[in-house]
Amino acid sequence: MSDIRQTDREYIANTYNRFDIEIESIENGYASADGKEFIDFGSGIGVNIFGAGDKEWIDAVCRQASILPHSSNLYYTRPCAELAKLLCEKTGMKKVFFGNSGAEANECAIKCARKYSYDKYGEGRKTIITLENSFHGRTLLTLSATGQEVFHRYFGPFVEGFRYVPANDIDALKAALTDDVCAFMFECVQGEGGVNALEKDYLAEAQKLCGEKDILMIVDEVQTGNGRTGTLYSYMQYDLSPDIVSTAKGLGGGLPIGACLMGEKVRDTLNAGSHGSTFGGNPICCAGALSVLSRLDEEFLGDVRERADYLWTKLSELKNIKSISGLGFMIGLEVEDSKSFISNCERMGLLVLSAKGKVRLLPPINVSRETIDKAVRILSEA
Length: 382
Ligand SMILES: *Cc1c(COP(=O)(O)O)cnc(C)c1O
What we know:
alpha/beta, Aspartate Aminotransferase, domain 1, Aspartate Aminotransferase, domain 2, 2 domains, 7-stranded mixed β-sheet, 12 helices, 17 strands, globular
């Protein structure tokens, strides 16, 4: 065992079971580790949307670091204002709050929904409906929002006011939307919960039900967002008009940033003093995000969909894969034994992820057909 593994094990909190790999560098979607080269189909858990080492992103980030790395939210800065404008122009949302992670984007979304309801209806309308098998983050509030029992241990008391319903069950949702509910929150494709895309009819019906009762629709696009599923945000493929959208992971292209996008109803819900973040909207992170977001245009996204279809077709031909789930470049594979499958991939030079007993693929969304071919060859042998 090399030194760094030992140092890590001695000094880093044991919250992750790391792969036995030390990543030294990543370029064009290929990771160098332990003297070997790996195809990176994990993208740092969906973060390196253009693959780490993307030249345009590096230039944007380095330039910003040398001009103005940080100034706090007490002052105006160009990158965060421009990023917010671009996010709103591309989505039709009205305002943006920047934090540093997916969990923080969701914290803001939940606070925003509760305050909207408080301002309009007074106390008592505080409940948020979320889905079983969802994942919304690791803070106490977002763990409370997460509809998986395994996350509701050790750290209690958790935050009150969440109710979980099974996905794709419209009757269960209807029954749960009682007078104390202010919002319905979900991922269009449940990532950590096993890469399951929700049904289109279900979400269309859910939108109608929520609209009738002024219940806000919050879409968690932390993993699905920023081109990952083939559209800028996955809700666009479901023809939804959410009131609040949270996103993070791929947004910064490798830097920590989370964004909560607020629609017409909640555009002025949060006011001075009601929320904040020291690092949120940091100029370097926003410059990185601008470099990512400005390239996610219709032409590029059309190409993403074509290459994703290409990968889906190739995967569907593999005998060792029982089922494929997900959307675009967010893919879950059901295999006989995912643990040994993943370590076989690793041995043959392909980094992949897991999700609830499945193998999960989150390649950089600019991955070439040639790299897809190489990865599929490894997947077929794994
Ligand atoms: C990863 C993830 C989060 C949490 O994001 P962090 O940046 O780790 O806080 C929240 N929601 C979804 C859907 C995620 O995939």
